Amino acid sequence: MNKVDHQLTIAVRRGMPTDLLDLLRKFPRGRWAGDPRIHGLAEGWIQRHEMFRELSVLTAKATADLREGRLAAETFLPLFQRRMGLLLSELETHHHVEDHHYFPAFAAAAPKLQKGFDILDNDHDVIHDSILSLNQASCELIAALSGEVSGHDGDAMRVAARLAGKITGFDRVLLRHLEDEEDLIIPLILERTRDDPDFR
Ligand SMILES: [Fe+2]
Ligand SMILES: [Fe+2]
Asked: What is the distance in A from the centroid of ligand 1 to the CA of 32?
């Protein structure tokens, strides 16, 4: 992976650099759904990203509901464990496949976009650290709540407040990454679908 300038790191930038977005101008988001080439790889990619967005919203909402007394710990625990577990593990798997299969294949097919793949690769490293941190905070809340459920005071609300802050930060970088990745990759897939076997 090539080094990425500070202003292009995930916490700083506000989108992909415009010199990487020629294909997005040719295939703007508003036309993706109506393009027959969306079916297959591009559609699957977007659906995966939508699942991550939804799980991130659902885990944040469940945590807020717990903190504000709208959800009992007994109801929260199994819901939260399932959704947060799915979000973090599936995201790690998704990034692994992108890093080791799709990004190298796409960068080889479109060398002018190499800088974009370096940016996305760097994002994955940052998100990986966030996943570890979020997983630890989630485990702490589950332990604290499990203690409360069985009659011990685990100071769960203090732990839940810390987790809520981490989810907010995680959500911000996740949304930036998913949008920028789609802006780079979906137009590339649409352009290449008919004539390049790497894009099917
Ligand atoms: Fe990614
Ligand atoms: Fe992705």
From this structure: 19
Q: How far is the CA of 151 from the centre of ligand 2 (A)?
A: 42
**Domain 33-199 grouped into CATH 3.30.70:** no
pLDDT one-digit tens code per residue, 45-60: 999 999 999 999 999 9
**Which residues, 6+ apart, have CB-to-CB distance to 22 below 8 Å?**
none
Return the ligand number nearest the Cα of 182: 2
User: Residue 146 — very low, low, confident or very high, per pLDDT cuts 50/70/90?
Assistant: confident
Cα of 178 from ligand 2 centre, angstroms? 6
Which letter does DSSP use for residue 6 in this model?
A: G
Distance (angstroms) between ligand 1 centre and the Cα of 95 equals: 5
Domain ranges in the chain are 33-199
Per-residue model confidence (pLDDT) at position 57: 96
* HSE (side-chain half, CA atoms, 13 Å) at 22: 6
Nearest ligand to the CA of 116 is 1
Cα–Cα distance between 163 and 159 in angstroms, integer? 6
